[in-house]
Amino acid sequence: MVVWRGGGTVSGGSSEAGAFRSSAPVALILDVQRPVLVEDANDLPESEPKALAEMLGARSLVLVPIHQPTARGAIVVCDPEARGWGGDALASLEDLADGVLTWWKLQEEAAARRKREDELDLLHSISQAAFLAPDVASAIFATLKQVCSFTGWEYGEAWLPDAADLRLSCAPFWFASRDDPFTRISRTYTFERGVGLPGTVWETGRPIWERDLAASSSYTRLALAAPLGIRSAVGLPVLTGDRVEAVLVFHATRLGKEDRRFVQSISTVASKLGEVVAAKRAEEQLRVSEARFAGIVTMAEEAIVSVDDESRITLFNPAAERLFGYEAAEVLGRAFDLLMPDETRARQSSLVRAFIDSGASDGEAPRRGEVTGLKKNGEEFVAEATIARLEVFGAAPASTFVLRDITERIHAEKLLKAQAIGDELTGLHNRRGFLLLAGQKLFSARRSNAACVLLYLDLDGFKAINDVHGHPEGDVALVETARLLRGTFRDTDVVGRLGGDEFVVLARSGEESDPVAAMCERLQQRFAEANAAGGRPYALACSIGAARWEPEDPVALEELLATADAELLKVKRAKKAANPHVRAP
Fold it and tell me: Domain named PAS: which ranges (predicted)?
């Protein structure tokens, strides 16, 4: 304790320099190190205590210091008259100082609790606002607004990596207390990794507090910030795992002393925001994909119909509405067999049921075929159908049909026959018709991943039939051969007469291990049965060359014909070598 008595004497074994570290009266209150007692300031020489007493209008006073880690001061008791305070008064004041110190600590603890509660409220409000935001932009803007409103910081901005993850660009959404050159020009900036405050936060993945931008070696926008009084900034990474999804930067005219706990709290907000951003981006991508899918389904020229595992219709696009004549609302939820005619309903429904029960999964090759459909007005039509198992955007897998009405194609085929693609004598396709329809069949076979066989044949001894029995009988032989071919092959196979006694057949491969041999055997059996029936002065016989067409290694129709023709020549040479003296019929 230092006691200042009349006459300027000092007791307590200390000098003025030992008691005080400042010459200003107000600084004396802040810097006093131990209790000070002045009994009569009028008797003091010029000094800090005398100046303080004059400032307070007192002749006697007592100072009791109060020191806290975050603040300092003193309790000052003064009297306009000179007086001797005595030890009891000083002890009472020291007790008072202890009480004040306890109260001070309690106030600081309460303020810290309130600040922490406010920070928790901020975290909750930001998380809620970001979660409820409809998109990434809204979520980030909500965060910028909440943080600036809570802290009083004047500017909040967001920086987003480009698609190549090479540069940060300023997001269009800012929170700013005013529109000024700093906001307008900053929007044009980009930052590479490690450049500027945003780029450094992006590079390190850690928050950075720049209390004095003028003293920062890495801050690149000082020329914009300084004229507006912007002196401080803090940058925060928005993280999902180790990836920086965005960088938030806040500017203020004064951020104050770095508060590591608050930075940690805001970093927690940024981390939560990272999760929200990742989720919002996934939602946006899903919405885009759904919209794209819906657009494709809507614009598709083919009818698209999906059914669930109970064969109920779940999707009916506009093209399906046009094809069947129903509006989607009329058929959704109803059984798929509504779209099938009575005579084929049981068979086609069982095929659909078999496909559903087969366990076909998303990604498996689709299955194709022809089906008969029934329009709302009762009209039937033939459609080319593709069916696949699809799982779209997390929904339950559905069996989806893509249907193309081929009624016009069938009609066109009939018209083509009428337009000189048919052989007038036999009723088969002529060369032109065969090449046209066989080309279409190979195209269809390639789409449906089906193998085919081409047979190239001519009649044995046809010249002798003409020479011995006359050309009218030769025509009879050609017509009979055409009849045998039609009876051997399916209506969907393409059968034609190329000219003279040359015939060709393009047929889908069967299930036999050797479909070529099986087809040739059936055809020769037909010829044998016709010969056994008699009625002609000669026997019909043919030589056959064959070529296989595989969808895995498709060849052009011309090449297929050339291969089968070459095989036919081999067969004819072999027959001639085996029977050199065989005479014509």
Answer: 289-359
- In whole angstroms, give the CA distance from residue 238 to residue 515: 66
Using CA atoms, how far apart are residues 492 and 358, in angstroms rounded to an integer?
Answer: 27
46 φ, ψ (degrees, to nearest 5): -60, 120
State the average pLDDT over residues 149-167. Answer: 88
Q: Is residue 122's pLDDT more than 80?
A: no
**DSSP characters over 412-455:** HHHHHIIIIIB-TTTSSB-HHHHHHHHHHHHHHHHHTT--EEEE
Which tokens sit at 583? 């005479």
For the beta carbon of residue 58, count every other beta carbon within 10 angstroms.
18
**At 37, is the pLDDT very low, low, confident or very high (cuts 50, 70, 90)?**
confident
Beta bridge partners of 303: 403
Q: How many whole angstroms separate alpha carbon 146 and alpha carbon 143?
A: 5
Position 272 pLDDT exceeds 50: yes
Over range 507-516, report the average pLDDT: 88
Torsion sign (Cα): 495, 498, 504, 506: negative
Asked if residue 18 has pLDDT above 50, the reply is no
Confidence of residue 120 (pLDDT cuts 50, 70, 90): low
Question: Of 542, 444, 446, which is closest to residue 494 (Cα–Cα)?
Answer: 444
CA separation for the pair 435, 403 (Å, rounded): 26
Alpha carbons 98 and 26: distance in angstroms, whole number: 22
Domains detected in the chain: 2-107 (3.30.450.40), 133-284 (3.30.450.40), 302-405 (3.30.450.20), 417-578 (3.30.70.270)
Handedness of CA 312, 317, 321, 323 (dihedral sign): negative
For residues 429 and 496, the answer to whether their CB atoms sit within 8 Å is yes
**Among all chains, which residue has been given the structure tokens 């092959």?**
489
Other CB atoms within a 10 A radius of the CB of residue 102 amount to 10
Q: What does pLDDT average to over the chain?
A: 81
Q: Percent of the chain beyond pLDDT 90?
A: 37
Burial class for 301, CB neighbours closer than 10 Å (0-12, 13-18, 19+): exposed
Contact 207, 265 (CB under 8 A): no
Contact criterion met (CB below 8 Å) for 148 and 174: no
Contact 428, 345 (CB under 8 A): no
User: CA 161, CA 146: separation in Å to the nearest integer?
Assistant: 23
CA distance 168 to 162: 6
Dihedral sign of CA atoms 139, 140, 144, 147 in order: positive
Of 550, 547, 552, the residue nearest 563 (C-alpha): 547
DSSP string, 159-222: EEE-TTSSEEEE-S--EESS--HHHHHHTT-EEETTSHHHHHHHHH-S-EEES-GGG-SS---H
